[in-house]
Amino acid sequence: MKRFLVYALGIFVIMSLSGCGYNTMQINEEAVKAAWGDVEATYQRRNDLIPNLVEVVKSYAKHEKETLQAVTEARGKVGSIQAGADIVNDPKAFSQFQEAQASIGNALSRLLVVVEQYPDLKANQNFRDLQVQLEGTENRINVARTRYNKAVQEFNTSIRIFPNSVTNSILLHLKPKEAFKAEAGAEKAPKVKF
Amino acid sequence: MSLDFGVQRHHCSIKKKSNRIFSAIPYSFLIFIFFVALWPCSFRLFNFEIDFLSRAYATEIPPLKGYINDYANMIPPTIRTKLTNELREFERTDSTQIVILTIPSLEGLTIEDYSIKVAEAWKIGKKGRDNGIILIIANQERKIRIEVGRGLEGKLTDLMAGRIIDLVVKPRFKRGDFSGGLVAGIAALIDATKGEFKTDDDRPSRTIESFSPFFTILLFGAVGLLILGNISPVLGGVAGAIGLPVTAYFVLEPSVFTLILLCILGLIMGIFLPFLFSGAGQGRGGMFFPRGGSFGSRGRGNDDFDSRGGFGGGGDFGGGGASGDW
Prior knowledge:
The complex is a heterodimer.
Chain A: H1 2-17, H2 22-60, H3 65-80, H4 91-115, H5 119-123, H6 125-160, H7 162-172
Helix pairs in contact in A: 2-3, 2-6, 3-4
Chain B: H1 2-57, E1 68-70, H2 77-94, E2 97-103, H3 111-122, E3 132-138, E4 143-149, H4 158-174, H5 178-193, H6 203-231, H7 233-252, H8 256-277, E5 317-325
Parallel strand pairs in B: 1-2, 2-3
Antiparallel strand pairs in B: 3-4, 4-5
């Protein structure tokens, strides 16, 4: 009977502790990487839309050179930051990336405010299509960022809670990952209105 | 090394054991029941946190009732039947799932935020194909959104979804013709996504999906066999011969021939597993728990749906689609 009890106890401990968390942490880190891939892809999607948008606006709103230039410049700045999966481990590079993307967002929202003064442009089917695509992209960015933050939160928790933290300090040496912070105003997606 | 030792020890104690078999049966039953009770418990323990989080996350999301979820009472019964038949037929041929949701009010959320929450809670579309579409209408705010699953983003682009809203749904809604708008909108969505997926290639994704829980159960089953086989080889053999095919029957839907093979395999395993492990018995550990499993989302009572692959089987959404108002 004693032997049964030992077995039962052993199984119970294994079941409730679910190991030392080694696999959990690995799984969570991969989830963060995947979520980051999505974030990058959605930002890239926005970047790809910008030249077309600038082109269309340029042909209607010749006097808005400055605004257009700001958008192009902000886009160029993002290109100079090497974004990769490593960026999530580097607080400095990460905040740089976030700032650069935020400045694109700001430039774009200014552009879309300016556009309000050009009814011909607003009626242009090409421009309207771009607006729909831009709106869709901003929404995707939002979703991707939320999911990334959730993945990071789960990962950071999993390397800090008790049995995992020991495993991590001995075996894995994983560092907490950076999450997006909501910046006052700057991080709001530009409102695209029809 | 330890293996040899174990076998020897087992032989030494086998006489004593055979005397004890009868008195051990009530205990073994107790332990058997204990494990039967514990198996689902371990899954539940593990999924509890995830379930809890997702439920808290989705508090205001109404439950998925069928193809038409008319919480704002905007769709008359005749149109409802017509649309349901159309959508069921479309899912039967193309496996793509389209769902309508009407709600009285967004309660302060933007339609984009609301709709991604619905998409995450309902998981419309097949797992691995992500071929779901949700058409959401918020009555009070007069907002429309088409939320497009990842697998359909190539065909039903944001632009296409935006045009369907602007050119097909919106003009009819403006006139107050909700039924006409929905019928025309659904027709446009079906036209836009027709042929992107076919029901036939459903099979591979399903077997992959049902594999991982099977191995988990197998692992626990092996441990159970170990215990029973330790008590008596007969008990272990019988448990293996019954347990393995039964598990396989529920999870994998195998043929009769496979079942018989599994029965024999289970018998052999039940008898010999304890021999293999009796030496190393106590020093074992490091068992792993695969995450998630597909237990949570299974077996919901959506009798309305074409039941082939299960509804809301885990389609993923990435925020694709378009919104509009009327």
